[in-house]
């Protein structure tokens, strides 16, 4: 099998950023990315597309332009791993060999977990900003709705961009508010969880908007099935005493966020933890059992907010640590769990939630992070897309230098030795 110094599974935000960071550090490494899609997406802007505030075409670019120069693109899908032989198995049965491996195939949207959803997605008022194809349909529905009931759903965690389900609600409400129809629209967020947002600091400013828009919050309410023709959604609702009931709610429009898991080929692989994610040390991002394997992005087990913002800080850490391993040293770069969720509470204002492991606040700017700001909207809608394509995907690590441990930690006994 063809062999690479670094083989990367997935050419999304994580795979391409890690490749770019590696190239910056050591241009002579042989690096390949296994990626089946010929398109690369800037998904964070889909929330804005659904709110009529961003051009969808700007969220899609040819994969060939996202993969860093000098990195080989293998247009195929990975199907499995033979880590004891340092091999990746492709869907077509081919095999690739590696000295080090980065596993970054993202997260899988489980549309099929909600009965009847697939059949009606994109019709009958059923939409989701989680798809490139459907984000414009959200905006179409929002503009068309003048009265009735609008439902928004949030599945059990973890999902990518945990704030996105409520961002869709705020931007819709903002439009209805501005056009004077909000008072004739009943708005409800059905949340499988028990809190509006996982980091407490950000709940009060969000609650102000929930109240301003008159939205109802239904907690412990999980979407289970949907009948598009009848315009009915079926929820499993857990009461305080633990009893579970099925509740039917009619809708004029519904914005659905599906449950999400690691991809099947990861869940079934030797790399998976009990929950199916690639089982890495949350600081070094190195696999807990296979010392020459790393993971970042949505597929990794690290308990950060699954965001492109997290990837921005993870990529340099993985690049440093991969090079250490290739040089026969132990990883010294440490990731602090940084992730960010720019909460679009109205068109023109964002609450910029930035936090690390344990909900520790990690603001980039010396401003009260709980205040909705115009500057943060500008960051989200104008600056971040440019930073993504021209800085992060190019391996320029502005404000993303990893923390380095001063000394090498003791090598772990189970470290497998590398090929050469
Ligand atoms: P992805 O970027 O999804 O890339 C995964 C890649 O792996 C894909 O190219 C895929 O084709 C490839 N792949 C899949 N299977 C295989 C296989 N078998 N073999 C090889 N390759 C494979 N983040 C923020 O920072 N801020 C936000 O405001 C924000 N908002 C969001 C709003 C929405 C609606 C959505 C959907 C996402 C949002 N995100 C946001 C999250 C962000 O997009 C992801 O966290 C980020 O893209 C994760 O990068 P990744 O590389 O792990 O996954």
TrEMBL record:
Keyword Flavoprotein tagged: yes
Cofactor or coenzyme needed: FAD
Annotated stretches, region: Disordered: 405-420
Domain of life per record: Bacteria
Compositionally biased intervals (Basic and acidic residues): 409-420
UniProt entry tagged with the keyword Signal: no
Keywords: FAD, Flavoprotein, Oxidoreductase, Quinone, Transit peptide
Annotated ranges, domain FAD/NAD(P)-binding: 4-122
GO BP annotations, alphabetical order: sulfide oxidation, using sulfide:quinone oxidoreductase
Cleavable signal peptide: none
Record GO terms (molecular function): FAD binding; hydrolase activity; quinone binding; sulfide:quinone oxidoreductase activity
Protein name: TIGR01244 family phosphatase
Organism encoding this protein: Zavarzinia aquatilis
